[in-house]
Amino acid sequence: MKFTCNQQTLTKALNTVSKAVSNRTTLPILKGILLEAKANGKLIMTASDLEISIQKETEAYVEEEGSIVVISKLFGDIIRKLPNEEISIESNEENSVLIKTSSSEFTVVSFPVDEFPKIGEKEEIKDDLIFDKEIFKDMVRKTSFAASIDESKGILVGILTEIGREKVSMVALDGFRLALANENMTSAEENKFIISAKIMNEISKIISDDETDDDIRILMGEKKAVFNIGTTEVILRLMEGEFIKYKEIIPKNNDINVIIGKSILLESIERASLLAKEGKNNLIKMTIKNNLLTITSRSEEGNVKEEIIMEKTGDDLEIGFNSKFIIDVLKAIDDEEISMNFKTGTSPCVVKPVEGNSYEYLILPVRIPSM
Amino acid sequence: MKFTCNQQTLTKALNTVSKAVSNRTTLPILKGILLEAKANGKLIMTASDLEISIQKETEAYVEEEGSIVVISKLFGDIIRKLPNEEISIESNEENSVLIKTSSSEFTVVSFPVDEFPKIGEKEEIKDDLIFDKEIFKDMVRKTSFAASIDESKGILVGILTEIGREKVSMVALDGFRLALANENMTSAEENKFIISAKIMNEISKIISDDETDDDIRILMGEKKAVFNIGTTEVILRLMEGEFIKYKEIIPKNNDINVIIGKSILLESIERASLLAKEGKNNLIKMTIKNNLLTITSRSEEGNVKEEIIMEKTGDDLEIGFNSKFIIDVLKAIDDEEISMNFKTGTSPCVVKPVEGNSYEYLILPVRIPSM
C-alpha cells in the first residue's frame, strides 16, 4: 500500500472515525484504524468498537492499492502534529508503516487486516429513510440528556425515534424525567427505532463536523442501521425490546398553568441549588401562590429564598423537585417563555412551549420533608 | 456589620483573595474569607493559608461597621451567581449573614472573627522596593517552570530574585535544568529573596487581574514580605536558607554553537516525543553534523527521524535529552531564533538569545543507551 494525502484532510477524517475507537481494551488491534487505499484514488478509514463502526472516505493519490491497520492514538497524534503539507504513507514488509514528509520520517508498527474486527458488516436493507440534519441534531440535543446513563437499565439508555409521514418524534426517559421532541418532517416511509443516547450524541457530533449539505440517509436492517452523513458512514446496532409506552405517562389534565421567563427561572434555581445539597437529592421547594413563584432550599450551611413574578391560572400549589432535573430541562430549551403545568404536589410537572408542542418534558416531584 | 456593594466589584475581589484559601483543610474557618466593613466606606477582604495571605480593598456603602468570616466557596458561588446589581450584606446575631438583592435572600453561616488565623500579621520593615509589573510577570514566566514541584526538595521549590541597582535576575533550578532571566531595571536598593515558585505564580496572576498601572511595591521584613499590587496586598513567608551558587554551574566555554529556528525545533521535538516513551525518560537523540540537526527517538511502537537545517560553528556532536526539559524551555522563549551551546555529549547544553542575555537555560543531557 502506498498513498499521499494532505495533512489537514487526514486529520479531519481521523477526528471523525476515531470516535468509534474503544479506549476500554488493551488489545492493540481493537485500538486500531483500518486504512484502505483503493485504485480509484479513494482512501477509506474505518474504526469499530462493539457497538458502532465509523467509516470515512477521502481523496488520496494512491500509488499502490492495499490496506493496513495502524494504532489509532499514535497514528492520529503523528498526523496531527505534522505540518500542513502532503504526507506519504507506505506499508513496509514486517508489519510497519512509513509516514514521510519533507523533513520527518516515522516508522510505526501496523497490524494485518484480517485481525481487524468485522462488526461493521452490513445486513440486508429493509428500509431507506431520509432525515434532515439540523432537525436530527436539534432533537437529540433536546432529548438525550433524559436517557439513563446506567448501562444496567436496558432500554432506558436509548432514544426512541418515531418517523411518520408528516412528523417525527424522539423520546427518552430514565424513570425520573421524560423528554419528548416533535418536529414536522415529511418522510416517504414510516419507521421507528431505538438507538442508545450515547451513539445518537456521537452521530450528532459527526453531523456537526460534516461539511456537505446533504440530508442523512438511514438504511435500516433487522438488527443494524447504516447512517450515511456526507462521506461518513456509521454502522450501529439497534437496541432490541419494547420501549416504554410513553404517551400513557404524560398527564393530560394538569390544570394549574404557569407562564414564566426561562432564564430568570434557571438562574434562580441554580442559586437555590447552592443550598440544596442535603441528602444529595438537590431538593428545592416551589411555592406557587397568586402571581408569585417562591423557590426555597436549605442545607447545614444556610437557606435561600428566591422570588419570581409569573402568570398563573388554577390553584395555588407547593411542590418539591430535584433541582438538577429542572436545570437540565431549562438548559435544553431555547424559548424565552415557557409553560409549566401542574396538578398536585405529588404528581408530575409538564414543561412545554407557550404555543405548539415542539417539546414536552415531564419531571417527577420529590416529597418535601418538613422544612 | 452592614454594607452594600456591587456584584461585579465583589466578584472580582473574591476571585483575587480566594487564591489564598486552602483547599486541603476540613476546618471550616480555614476555608473562610474575612470581611471587614470600615466606617470610611472601605470593604477589606482577606484570605490566608499557612504560606500566604491576600487582602483586597474595595469601595462599599457601609451602613454599620463590623467584621465577619464567611465560607469562601459558598459565599463566592452565591455572589458569582447573583445578577449584576447592588447586594446588601448584613451580619445577624447567631453566627449568620444575610445576603440580599431585589429578588434573592440568602442566610448563610458565619464564624467569629477571633477564630480567623493571624498568619497575615506584618513584621518590622527593613527594605522598601519597587518592581515593574510587566518585568516581574515576564521573569516569573521564564523561570518558574524550572523550579522543583517536590515539596521535599527544600530551597529548590523556590525562585531566587536578585535586585541590583541597574539589573534584576530571577533563577530557578531543579537539578536537571536551570532557568535564569535577566532584565535592566533601576532600583534605589539592592536586595535578594527566595519565594516559592507556586507563590510567585499566584502573584503573577494577581498582577494580571490588577487594573491599576502602579508598579509593585515590596516591603521586606526578616521572614516575611508584603507585596502591594494596586489595591491588593499579599503577605508571604520568605524561604530561608542559602540558594545554590548557580553562577558556578553555568558553563562558560561551550564552544559548539548552533543557531536554529525555535518553532521548527519545538515542533520536531514534540513529534519525536511521540515515540520517546521508553523507560519514561522521554529520551530523544540529537545528532549535530555539518549544517543538519537530526533528532531521533524510538519506542516499541516505532521510530522517528526529524531533520532541521541550522547554522553551526564548532565540532559535530551526538547528545541525548529528556525531551520534556527542552520543550519546557522552548515554550518559555518568545524569540524566533535561538542559540544552543554545547561542549560534549555528556555536559550541559545552554540555550540563550542570539544576542543579549535576557535568558539563559541550562539543560543536563541524558546518557544515550545503544540505540
From TrEMBL, chains A, B:
Residues 1-119 form the DNA polymerase III beta sliding clamp N-terminal domain. GO terms for cellular component: cytoplasm; DNA polymerase III complex. It is found in: Cytoplasm. Pfam families: DNA_pol3_beta (PF00712), DNA_pol3_beta_2 (PF02767), DNA_pol3_beta_3 (PF02768). Residues 247-367 form the DNA polymerase III beta sliding clamp C-terminal domain. Residues 133-243 form the DNA polymerase III beta sliding clamp central domain. The keyword Manganese does not apply. Keywords: Cytoplasm, DNA replication, DNA-binding, DNA-directed DNA polymerase, Nucleotidyltransferase, Transferase. One of its GO terms (molecular function) is DNA binding. Confers DNA tethering and processivity to DNA polymerases and other proteins. Acts as a clamp, forming a ring around DNA (a reaction catalyzed by the clamp-loading complex) which diffuses in an ATP-independent manner freely and bidirectionally along dsDNA. Initially characterized for its ability to contact the catalytic subunit of DNA polymerase III (Pol III), a complex, multichain enzyme responsible for most of the replicative synthesis in bacteria; Pol III exhibits 3'-5' exonuclease proofreading activity. Forms a ring-shaped head-to-tail homodimer around DNA. Belongs to the beta sliding clamp family. This is Beta sliding clamp. It comes from Lentihominibacter hominis. The lineage of its organism: Bacteria, Bacillati, Bacillota, Clostridia, Peptostreptococcales. The gene is dnaN.
